[in-house]
């Protein structure tokens, strides 16, 4: 593992996202979109035609091209590495696939201590294609920041235990409650996997990282604190020495924002359900906020979109006045597949004008 230090990394003194994340004054309000590199872009659908999702994620040149597409089209302030949260599991040797219309499907779900003990260890060379894509991108992005990412241990565990996406996470919660020792062993293993994956991206040159805990919103605050927070904290602690800004995001996590803020991120992502000037009170001062336009609003016509963007910017300004160190404009979740890309471009222009 290369203990990369800030002094040896790509220096982007004018990158608005990095300034906002670090509590510095940005030259303009930074904006990027989760899932900006993907299905809403016709150029993405064209280049991905006939290529499976996981195959795409292990092709460095293809990853770099897909990651660049929204930067060229929208003038966003950050590229988000094109990948998937199950990539490190696949790279380690777990038998899974991403099934169109369903999502990740795991051949042999993990539901016992023996299953956890049998999980393979991820080694950095197994995600070398991802690291190569990062290297290609840092050479092409200029002064635009590159965000790497990984799935948080809980969200990875939910896929492994359920065997695929789940609405209620009943098998996951059952394991958590019935065999806490096995549960914590599973999340500790997955934290190590996540750390290896993120460190490979850091060593290759990412400028920031985001930890996605997509399904943590299914949990109560008490369960989150007991069964999840220690493992997310372990991830953030392990990668903090690199000095890159760290973002933490989950969906439906309004009641968890304070605890998520404690895990060690510099920026806490907020979904569309919670106003930013309320979120700052939940997160507490000293961290930046990211969010939080409802992705569905992008279908409502420009007048509605503009009104919501301006409202969120006003909430963000009040949040900063109340103790948030900065604001990164984003959606409250990912870009939906049928979104008009031109609307996203107009949103970026509007945010930059505010």
TrEMBL record:
Localization terms from the record: Cytoplasm
An example Gene Ontology CC term for this record: cytosol
Cytoplasm recorded as keyword: yes
Alphabetical list of CDD domains matching this protein: URO-D
Main location as per UniProt: cytoplasm
Cell division as UniProt keyword: no
UniProt pathway: Porphyrin-containing compound metabolism; protoporphyrin-IX biosynthesis; coproporphyrinogen-III from 5-aminolevulinate: step 4/4
Site (Transition state stabilizer): 84
Record-level Gene Ontology MF annotations: uroporphyrinogen decarboxylase activity
Gene3D superfamilies: 3.20.20.210
Span of domain Uroporphyrinogen decarboxylase (URO-D): 30-39, 147-163
PROSITE patterns: UROD_1 (PS00906), UROD_2 (PS00907)
Keywords, sorted A to Z: Cytoplasm, Decarboxylase, Lyase, Porphyrin biosynthesis
InterPro entries in alphabetical order: UROD/MetE-like_sf (IPR038071), Uroporphyrinogen_deCO2ase_HemE (IPR006361), Uroporphyrinogen_deCOase (IPR000257)
GO biological process: protoporphyrinogen IX biosynthetic process
HAMAP family attached to this UniProt entry: URO_D
Known function: Catalyzes the decarboxylation of four acetate groups of uroporphyrinogen-III to yield coproporphyrinogen-III.
Assembly and binders: Homodimer.
Protein name stated in the entry: Uroporphyrinogen decarboxylase
Species of origin: Rhodococcoides kyotonense
């Amino acid at each position: 593992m290369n203990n990369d230090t800030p002094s040896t990394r790509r220096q982007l003194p004018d990158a608005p996202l990095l300034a906002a994340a670090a509590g510095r004054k940005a030259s303009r309000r930074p904006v990027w979109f989760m899932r900006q590199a993907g299905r809403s872009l016709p150029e993405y659908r064209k280049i991905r035609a006939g290529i499976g999702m996981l195959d795409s994620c292990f092709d460095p040149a293809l990853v770099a091209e897909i990651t660049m597409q929204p930067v060229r089209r929208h003038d966003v302030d950050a590229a988000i590495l094109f990948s998937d949260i199950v990539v490190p599991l696949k790279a380690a040797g777990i038998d899974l696939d991403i099934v169109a219309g369903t999502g990740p499907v795991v051949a042999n779900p993990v539901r016992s201590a023996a299953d956890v003990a049998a999980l393979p260890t991820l080694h950095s060379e197994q995600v070398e294609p991802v690291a190569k894509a990062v290297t290609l991108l840092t050479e092409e992005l200029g002064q635009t920041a590159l965000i790497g990412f990984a799935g948080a241990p809980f969200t990875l565990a939910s896929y492994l235990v359920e065997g695929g996406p789940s609405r209620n996470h009943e098998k996951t919660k059952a394991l958590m409650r019935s065999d806490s020792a096995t549960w914590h062993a599973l999340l500790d293993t997955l934290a190590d996997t996540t750390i290896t994956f993120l460190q490979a991206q850091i060593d290759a040159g990412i400028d920031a990282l985001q930890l996605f805990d997509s399904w943590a919103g299914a949990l109560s605050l008490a369960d989150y604190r007991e069964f999840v927070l220690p493992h997310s904290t372990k991830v953030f602690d392990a990668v903090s020495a690199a000095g890159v800004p760290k973002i933490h995001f989950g969906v439906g996590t309004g009641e968890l924002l304070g605890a998520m803020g404690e895990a060690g991120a510099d920026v806490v992502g907020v979904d569309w359900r919670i106003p930013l000037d309320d979120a700052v009170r939940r997160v507490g001062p000293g961290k930046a906020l990211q969010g939080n336009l409802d992705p569905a609003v992008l279908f409502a016509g420009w007048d509605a979109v503009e009104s919501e963007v301006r409202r969120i910017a006003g909430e963000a300004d009040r949040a900063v006045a109340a103790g948030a160190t900065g604001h990164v404009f984003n959606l409250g979740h990912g870009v939906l597949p049928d979104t008009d890309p031109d609307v996203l471009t107009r949103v970026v222009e509007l945010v930059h004008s505010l």
